[in-house]
Write a structure and sequence with these properties.
This protein has 206 residues and is mostly helical. Helix content is 80%, strand content 0%.
């Protein structure tokens, strides 16, 4: 077979460079993946912290003169919009991680005959890492330290609320329409129940 006819030419690295060349090429991607994973964990922790605050905690935030507590109270004034923005933020981060990892794995595994299995295995491991370090661990910690985590992640939640405001408003409007239909049938969902439903849906999809 003529090598020039290969639609996916393989990148051959000079032998004298060895692993240092691989490190130079892929270290920035690894750093980016780690950064995105940390951000995903912070967003998940923020969601769990905000929506596990008790009514007394929220009342103290509203009556507090501390800037961090005031920010928490302001964000919780529109809980559905806050929840929607955090869900969008977290899902986009998770998607970005999976896309980058899949792309890198595809590039690195083209020299192996079992590249399909390597790609599937790495994607599975990355998905488990996202679920564990980007969802479960942050949410468990945030639920146990909700006020402290809410204060520290409030700027990040506020940033997500600003950046994803159009999409969040769209989701809120759709949610309101669904709520109206549910209420007509004698049911009513709270924001906390909606958050739990979103978490269960996300876990099932993962």
């Amino acid at each position: 077979m003529d090598p020039s006819s290969d639609p996916l030419p393989r990148q051959v690295l000079p032998a004298e460079h060895g692993w240092s060349t691989y490190f130079d090429l892929y270290a920035p991607y690894a750093a980016l993946i780690l950064l995105l994973l940390v951000l995903a964990g912070l967003v998940s922790a923020s969601e769990a912290a905000f929506f596990s605050l008790s009514p007394d905690d929220r009342a103290r935030c509203r009556n507090s003169s501390q800037p961090g507590d005031t920010r928490i109270a302001t964000l919780l004034d529109r809980p559905k919009r806050l929840l929607a923005s955090l869900v969008i933020f977290n899902n986009l981060l998770n998607i970005a991680i999976v896309v980058i990892v899949t792309y890198l794995t595809w590039k690195l595994s083209r020299t192996y005959q079992s590249s399909g299995w390597i790609l599937a295995g790495v994607t599975l491991l990355m998905t488990l890492a996202i679920v564990l370090f980007g969802e479960i661990v942050p949410k468990v910690y945030a639920s146990q330290n909700n006020m402290a985590v809410a204060r520290r992640t409030a700027p990040l939640a506020q940033l997500g609320l600003i950046v994803f405001r159009p999409l969040a408003m769209l989701l809120v409007n759709l949610s309101n329409q669904v709520d109206k239909r549910i209420e007509r049938r004698g049911y009513k969902l709270s924001v906390e129940e909606l958050s739990q439903a979103v978490d269960l849906t996300g876990d099932g999809a993962t």
